[in-house]
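User: I'm putting together notes for a lab meeting next week and I want to include a structural view of one of the chains we've been expressing. I don't have a solved structure, so I'd like a prediction I can at least talk through. The sequence is below, exactly as it appears in our construct file.
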Amino acid sequence: MANQRITIIPGDGIGPSIIESAVEILDKLDCGFEFDYAYAGLAAVEKFGHLLPQQTLDLIAQNKVVLKGPLTTPIGEGFTSINVTLRKHFKLFANLRPVISFKGTKSRYEQIDIITIRENTEGLYSGLGQKMAEDGSSAEATSLITRQAASNIVEFAYKLAKREGRKKITLIHKANILKSTSGLFLSVGREIAKRHPEITTEEMIVDNACMQLVMNPEKFDVIVTTNLFGDIISDLCAGLVGGLGMAPSANIGEDCAIFEAVHGSAPDIAGKNLANPTSVILASIQLLEHLGLTDKAAKLRAAVRDTIEKGDRTTRDLGGTAGTSEFTQAILERL
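Assistant: Thanks for the context. Below is the predicted structure for the 335-residue chain, given as structure tokens.
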């Protein structure tokens, strides 16, 4: 059987250095991966004169699995967001954001283990129908929710919950006010929940959900919600475990998946060996799980956990003094 080819998009700012860490670690795990490098963002503009070159799209379509660093979308370049463009182009309908507590982080909580599953293509966040009056006096955007997309994301959540032995799904909505759009999402969620009685299903209005996540996060297991709410909630959840540096992300479609760090490109610390690569290393764990390499994923998660808990070679944001390369070396040694 041919080796699995992975498309690597190093990204901008700190992206290349943290992606290099992840590639070193995946090599050490001896998964038989072959890596093909592609470019997007400012790095692509410098090389090819375009934020998202056709050769990058072709390589993603060919390999179907991508590990990606953070990208910078310049203002006024015609792209709302390169990430949104990639999600739409490859129909990556599910955004998967797990957060897990690691001892040794500056976190307010222990024992957090929450997965936020966010519909990735519709709703207000998609930027549909944006327009502003010529005199700047008003602006509007369209929120579109379809039965098909709502059904896809909720079914995805229940399948994942079963596969991972999860016990509860929380449907987060605002159907009390947004009776059409959020109402349709909730209605579809209720229909699908009836087909999965072995999973406990809870409904929660989004504002209450945010309060409960801060006060009683242990109540949550799997969250499924629409695009904009999911964007906000997943960052809130990252705050429960120490920040965006501890938060990976997967964007999954029918035949393609992109795994990435969720934080920005942090150009102010680029090239200084200061960046924490944990987010993209955790995204690599998602990638391994997606490809069915669960033993390798578990081994890597244990190495990350032990490195952070010991704290002798962690980055500054984790309370240590080590650089990106020293932190990476500590994980490699544990593997």
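A couple of points you could mention at the meeting. The two ends are 25 Å apart (CA to CA). The chain has a mean pLDDT of 94.

User: Perfect, that's what I needed.
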